[in-house]
Amino acid sequence: MSDVTTDRTAGDAGDAPAIDVRGLRKAFGELEVLRGIDFSVGRGEVVCVIGPSGSGKSTLLRCVNLLEEPSAGRVTVAGTEVTDPDVDIDRVRRRIGMVFQSFNLFPHLTALENLTIAQRRVLRRDRAEAERIGRANLERVGLGDKATAYPAQLSGGQQQRVAIARALSMDPELMLFDEPTSALDPELVGDVLAVMRGLARDGMTMLVVTHEMSFAREVADRVVFMDGGVIVEQGTPEQVVGAPRHERTRTFLARVL
Ligand code: ADP
Ligand code: MG
């Protein structure tokens, strides 16, 4: 869909960036959490957002799919301005997969049922098709043998991989990850990161908030360092993690590396 009258910068949606954020501000009452954010994510690009707790990383992600309403600025997803008051936000959200720190699986549904419910309700797929796609995505995250398991029977890492498979089953154009491994026991982190590495290799567009610096170094095309609601610096992992230019970045990295 290309609509030049409502979108002056993105041009045709076919070559618009996956995410474009301009002058984004967000305040909760008196508290200014995002204080003018500009960045974009190209199609097929993997961008990791790092920064101290409270710097606004989650709020930024949540503004991309309008779980939070920006106070000012423009957010465009694949050529559609989501901050346009007339936008059909449910349609935009359908194109965005989101994976949080907490997996939020339905406890009374099996892994496969957790994958088919939104496909059937939102995408109106019939049961057979939803199950076929669900099983393929369980395979993709290495859980082909867990279709009938309930969340309580799965480890945290397995539950998070089900959550990733659930997002993938909706055929998203891009994926947002908010500290997907932060709630996991250390020995379970690797399997989840391996799945994310595979997605990156397959060309998925990904915006990932993470404290996993080795993942950021290996997988990210670009690293964005945030502090105090602004982007302090961004660049390749070699630049930002390997040779940070700002004192604040160095201080943060010294703590997490
Ligand atoms: P990060 O993900 O980098 O840790 P967040 O985006 O979660 O940071 O939060 C940034 C700041 O915004 C924090 O001070 C947090 O307490 C505040 N904040 C986040 N969400 C809300 C909200 N719904 N209401 C009020 N304050 C919030
Ligand atoms: Mg956060």
TrEMBL record:
Pfam families recorded: ABC_tran
Listed under catalytic activity are: a polar amino acid(out) + ATP + H2O = a polar amino acid(in) + ADP + phosphate + H(+)
Q: What keywords is this UniProt entry annotated with?
A: Amino-acid transport, ATP-binding, Cell membrane, Membrane, Nucleotide-binding, Transport
Give the E.C. number(s): 7.4.2.1
Boundaries of each ABC transporter domain copy?
A: 19-253
- GO terms of molecular function: ATP binding; ATP hydrolysis activity; ATPase-coupled polar amino acid-transporter activity
List the SMART domains hit by this protein, alphabetically: AAA
Domain of life (superkingdom): Bacteria
Topology with respect to the bilayer: Peripheral membrane protein
Q: Which PANTHER family match?
A: AMINO ACID IMPORT ATP-BINDING PROTEIN (PTHR43166), GLUTAMATE_ASPARTATE IMPORT ATP-BINDING PROTEIN GLTL (PTHR43166:SF9)
Q: What is this protein called?
A: ABC-type polar-amino-acid transporter
